[in-house]
Amino acid sequence: KQEVTQIPAALSVPEGENLVLNCSFTDSAIYNLQWFRQDPGKGLTSLLLIQSSQREQTSGRLNASLDKSSGRSTLYIAASQPGDSATYLCAMNRDDKIIFGKGTRLHILP
Amino acid sequence: GAVVSQHPSWVICKSGTSVKIECRSLDFQATTMFWYRQFPKQSLMLMATSNEGSKATYEQGVEKDKFLINHASLTLSTLTVTSAHPEDSSFYICSGGGLLQETQYFGPGTRLLVL
């Protein structure tokens, strides 16, 4: 059974700190892995997409890595800001199916 | 946990026809549902926000007259692709949240192929 697990479920850190969100998946035969942001009551915002042939992607203060052999992906957020407070989801694409993790709820303390 | 269903899971249609995709929340009421699409090797992208009893809110670049959204009840939202063309072939997925909208539950998706 393909599963996507995100740890931790919730995280609070002071503003300015760097942080890492973790995502693990059980099947290494993925097409790509995506990271999304979700604000309460809003739809998903795509942050980063890593193809299966790639190891990382960067966008601004965000860096996502992918290690298929270990079934892990991380989302690194540098110099966190209160506006980064949201739920972050990772999703695994395989066989035209998208499997989402349950998300990490991030709270950046001013 | 909460369940969201989509119907159909697969649809193949001829160019110029319209296709309706249903999204149902099976054990909770969703005042808001979201519609996404994903082209091959691309990220899932939000198309529109569907609000029960009111007009949908479309993301920039999404044609509201082509992608008709109806959210007539708290458990059903429909997306109709009008006059479908091959470039509309994509994977369409919906999601819905409970009262607090803190958690979104995703449907299994609908794959549309327009010939």
Please give a handful of descriptors for the protein shown.
heterodimer; A: 110 residues; six-stranded mixed β-sheet; B: 115 residues; 11 strands; globular
Distance between the termini of chain B: 37 Å
Kindly state the percentage of residues in helix of chain A. under 10%
Radius of gyration of chain A: 13 Å
| Average pLDDT of chain A | 90
Radius of gyration of chain B: 13 Å
Order of helices and strands of chain B: EEEEEEEEEEE
The helix tally of chain A amounts to 0
The total of beta strands of chain A comes to 11
> Sheet with the most strands of chain A?
6 strands, mixed
Number of helices of chain B: 0
- Order of helical and strand elements of chain A: EEEEEEEEEEE
Q: Mean pLDDT of chain B, as a whole number?
A: 89
Question: Secondary structure elements and their pairing?
Answer:
The complex is a heterodimer of chains A (110) and B (115).
Chain A: E1 4-7, E2 10-14, E3 19-25, E4 32-38, E5 44-51, E6 56-59, E7 62-67, E8 72-77, E9 86-94, E10 97-100, E11 104-109
Parallel strand pairs in A: 2-11
Antiparallel strand pairs in A: 1-3, 3-8, 4-5, 4-9, 6-7, 7-8, 9-10, 9-11
Chain B: E1 4-7, E2 10-13, E3 19-25, E4 32-38, E5 45-51, E6 57-58, E7 67-73, E8 76-81, E9 90-97, E10 104-106, E11 110-114
Parallel strand pairs in B: 2-11
Antiparallel strand pairs in B: 1-3, 3-8, 4-5, 4-9, 5-6, 7-8, 9-10, 9-11
